[in-house]
Amino acid sequence: MRYILLLAFIPIFVIAVYIYKRDKFNKEPLKELLKAFAAGMFSAVVVILVHEILDLSGVDIETNVFLRAFVSAAVIEECSKFFFFYKLFWNNPNFDERFDGIVYAVYVSLGFAFVENVLYIYQDVGQAVSIARARAFFAVPAHTLFAIAMGYGAGIARFSRKRASLYLVSGLIWAILLHGIYDFLLMYSSDLASVNETFSAFIVMLFYIFVIIMWVVGFRRMKKLNEEDQWRL
User: Fold this and answer.
1) What average pLDDT does range 220-225 have in this prediction?
2) Is residue 26 within 8 Å of 96, Cβ to Cβ?
3) Is the pLDDT of residue 184 over 90?
């Protein structure tokens, strides 16, 4: 179990340190970051409970690839993370810079990703290293990028005199869209692999292009909020 926890935690720790260092002007208290991480872990439990309730109710959102990507994964997971982020940090006095929206959203997301990592690795311990490696390079960074979109909207909303609610909700919507497209391309390419290998390969290529675009936009958004916070000093 220690081995599983270590494999699950290493990529989380690396990204957590990176985001902490990117917060240049007024770093968040460690207590608040740990709170955000713990909240993310609770958000994963909420997602599990929601899926259990849907299963018991006979609601099927798993057989259709679109519903599986955009509802089962994107909507439920991002809304759960957003709920804890909003409740704990929207009115938190430590949320005193635009970039803090990204910091807290990412730490919540990392808590979620940690629980998800443990569950995936535990399900197939024999493939623990390969699963952990794949998630370290794709799933965990992806959750981070979804959170950057959410936190970017929240960071702008926090210091906007007008349309604050619009910016806040737009951050959530962007996180859902990015998450849904990411999962849809992965799931659709997997489903097509045994039917049409050429088209499946094309979808995989689109997936990699999409991931690169997310990285570029994510870094630009972090840079933009840091620059705006510097201007406010």
Assistant:
1) 93
2) yes
3) yes
Q: How confident is the model at residue 1, as a pLDDT?
A: 62
DSSP states of 95-138: --STHHHHHHHHHHHHHHHHHHHHHHHHHTGGGHHHHHHHIIII
Cβ atoms of 97 and 10 within 8 Å: the answer is no
**C-beta neighbour count of 214 within 10 angstroms:** 20
Q: What is the pLDDT of residues 122-171, one digit of tens each?
A: 887 778 788 888 888 999 999 999 999 999 999 999 988 888 899 999 99
Distance CA 144, CA 137 (A): 11
Per-residue pLDDT band for 232 (boundaries 50, 70, 90) equals low
Instruction: In whole angstroms, give the CA distance from residue 214 to residue 145.
Output: 7
Judge contact between 214 and 108, C-beta under 8 A.
no
